[in-house]
């Protein structure tokens, strides 16, 4: 089967199923696993070149709606008459369902079930390691304006499983811009930068302390401001589990340092 994936999380689902060799084209942001990085690219994941997709003669196109703007790709594919399957989710259960869906499409249902079971087992192992308290965790998708995830985002579940509670997980949205003063009022114990599209080495979490009034936020004052790998938080696929494990390790390491 000739597969074109239009976002990194879809690419990584195909990889986890052991079918990376069936990929023939990718969006520009797909950078994992190593064996697919030389494949033809069909444009940014929010502005796909539909003609480039068609030239690859795919049997299966995996589109997405996980990032605002991707709806333009879906509309363009529909207008061009290119069949595709939209892979979208707001939750970890949705990620599991998507792995199973892609598995069925590729005739790899058994492998998909094994991948999901492995993910769930790792998450349960983290959940079982209960922290003495549950710190408030602020996650920032973007700095200007400040954009945060809400209740309808998988990261809120990730934070909870890791042992924290999302500072804005009560908002009934996927993600939303928010006033900086509301972050100060929320007084999170831990702050994470997960700036979308910014390489990990270029994240600058220390800059949060330079924002007016943010120095008084408990997490900032205590130095609990960390750059999280976007690939483990922003891509709703199999590698989210590694993000949960990493955050849990961070929270455990700092549990004795006044996190409340």
Outline the structure in words.
- By secondary structure, the chain is α/β, with parallel strands linked by helices.
- It folds into 2 domains: 3-123, 3-Layer(aba) Sandwich (Rossmann fold); 131-253, Nitrogenase molybdenum iron protein domain (Rossmann fold).
- Helix content is 35%, strand content 15%.
- It contains 9 helices and 11 strands.
- The protein has helices at 8-16, 50-55, 71-79, 92-105, 109-128, 154-162, 180-186, 218-221, 240-253, and strands spanning 3-5, 23-26, 60-64, 85-87, 136-140, 142-143, 146-149, 165-166, 175-177, 190-193, 225-227.
- The strands form 3 sheets. Strands 2-1-3-4 form a 4-stranded parallel β-sheet, with helices on both faces.
- Helix 4 packs antiparallel against helix 5 (109-128) and helix 6 runs parallel beside helix 9.
- The protein is globular.
- The termini are far apart.
- The mean pLDDT is 95.
